[in-house]
Amino acid sequence: MNDFPAYTLVDTETRRIASHFVEQAFQISVALPNEAAVSKQHLFNKTSSEKALVFAHHFPPFPNLGYISKRGIGWEWQPVQAAISA
Predict the structure, then answer these.
(1) Element (H, E) at 54
(2) Is the pTM of this model over 0.85?
(3) Staple partner for 5: which of 10, 36, 51, 52, CB 3.0–4.6 Å?
Protein backbone atom coordinates (compact mmCIF):
# COMPACT_ATOMS: atom_id res chain seq x y z
CA MET A 1 0.00 0.00 0.00
CA ASN A 2 1.27 3.48 -0.86
CA ASP A 3 1.70 6.02 1.92
CA PHE A 4 1.22 9.26 0.03
CA PRO A 5 -1.67 11.68 0.07
CA ALA A 6 -4.08 11.69 -2.85
CA TYR A 7 -7.38 13.49 -3.32
CA THR A 8 -10.29 13.61 -5.73
CA LEU A 9 -11.79 17.04 -6.32
CA VAL A 10 -15.30 17.01 -7.73
CA ASP A 11 -16.97 20.22 -8.87
CA THR A 12 -14.50 22.33 -6.94
CA GLU A 13 -13.43 24.42 -9.88
CA THR A 14 -14.84 24.52 -13.40
CA ARG A 15 -12.25 26.67 -15.10
CA ARG A 16 -8.56 26.11 -15.66
CA ILE A 17 -6.80 26.55 -12.38
CA ALA A 18 -4.70 29.56 -11.88
CA SER A 19 -7.29 30.26 -9.24
CA HIS A 20 -6.40 33.59 -7.83
CA PHE A 21 -10.11 34.31 -7.59
CA VAL A 22 -11.63 31.50 -5.53
CA GLU A 23 -14.22 34.00 -4.32
CA GLN A 24 -15.98 33.83 -7.70
CA ALA A 25 -19.07 31.68 -7.36
CA PHE A 26 -20.18 29.10 -9.92
CA GLN A 27 -23.07 26.67 -10.29
CA ILE A 28 -23.65 25.06 -6.86
CA SER A 29 -21.59 27.60 -4.94
CA VAL A 30 -23.94 30.42 -5.99
CA ALA A 31 -26.16 29.63 -2.99
CA LEU A 32 -23.24 29.75 -0.53
CA PRO A 33 -20.49 31.81 -2.20
CA ASN A 34 -18.50 32.59 0.97
CA GLU A 35 -18.50 28.99 2.15
CA ALA A 36 -17.51 27.80 -1.33
CA ALA A 37 -14.54 30.19 -1.44
CA VAL A 38 -13.35 29.11 2.02
CA SER A 39 -13.70 25.43 1.02
CA LYS A 40 -11.70 25.90 -2.18
CA GLN A 41 -8.97 27.81 -0.36
CA HIS A 42 -8.75 25.06 2.26
CA LEU A 43 -8.60 22.26 -0.33
CA PHE A 44 -6.04 24.02 -2.52
CA ASN A 45 -3.84 24.93 0.47
CA LYS A 46 -4.06 21.38 1.88
CA THR A 47 -3.27 19.60 -1.38
CA SER A 48 -0.43 22.00 -2.25
CA SER A 49 1.19 21.84 1.21
CA GLU A 50 0.99 18.03 1.24
CA LYS A 51 2.26 17.83 -2.36
CA ALA A 52 -0.67 15.45 -2.85
CA LEU A 53 -1.59 13.81 -6.12
CA VAL A 54 -4.98 15.15 -7.21
CA PHE A 55 -7.59 13.68 -9.54
CA ALA A 56 -9.72 16.61 -10.69
CA HIS A 57 -12.52 15.96 -13.17
CA HIS A 58 -12.52 19.44 -14.71
CA PHE A 59 -8.76 20.05 -14.86
CA PRO A 60 -7.26 19.15 -18.24
CA PRO A 61 -5.50 17.34 -19.81
CA PHE A 62 -6.49 13.67 -19.61
CA PRO A 63 -6.03 11.74 -17.30
CA ASN A 64 -6.88 14.73 -15.05
CA LEU A 65 -4.12 13.89 -12.57
CA GLY A 66 -1.69 16.41 -11.23
CA TYR A 67 -0.57 18.62 -8.40
CA ILE A 68 -1.81 21.96 -7.12
CA SER A 69 1.00 24.34 -6.26
CA LYS A 70 0.82 27.63 -4.40
CA ARG A 71 1.82 30.44 -6.72
CA GLY A 72 1.78 34.03 -5.51
CA ILE A 73 -1.67 34.82 -4.16
CA GLY A 74 -3.24 31.85 -5.95
CA TRP A 75 -2.57 28.29 -7.07
CA GLU A 76 -1.41 26.58 -10.23
CA TRP A 77 -2.47 23.25 -11.74
CA GLN A 78 0.50 21.10 -12.75
CA PRO A 79 -0.77 18.12 -14.75
CA VAL A 80 0.98 14.76 -14.74
CA GLN A 81 1.85 13.63 -18.25
CA ALA A 82 0.24 10.34 -19.22
CA ALA A 83 2.52 7.66 -20.58
CA ILE A 84 0.73 5.97 -23.47
CA SER A 85 2.31 2.92 -25.03
CA ALA A 86 1.29 1.35 -28.31
Answers:
(1) strand 53-56
(2) no
(3) 52
Question: Is the pLDDT score of 6 beyond 80?
Answer: no
Domain ranges of the chain: 6-79
Give dist(CA 34, CA 32) in Å, integer: 6
| Residue type (1 letter), 77 | W
DSSP letter at 16 equals -
More confident residue, 50 or 16: 50
| Residue from 37, 50, 41 nearest 7 by CA | 50
Question: Has residue 28 got a pLDDT over 60?
Answer: no
Q: How far apart are CA 32 and CA 28, in angstroms?
A: 8
Check: CB of residue 31 under 8 Å from CB of residue 25. Answer: no
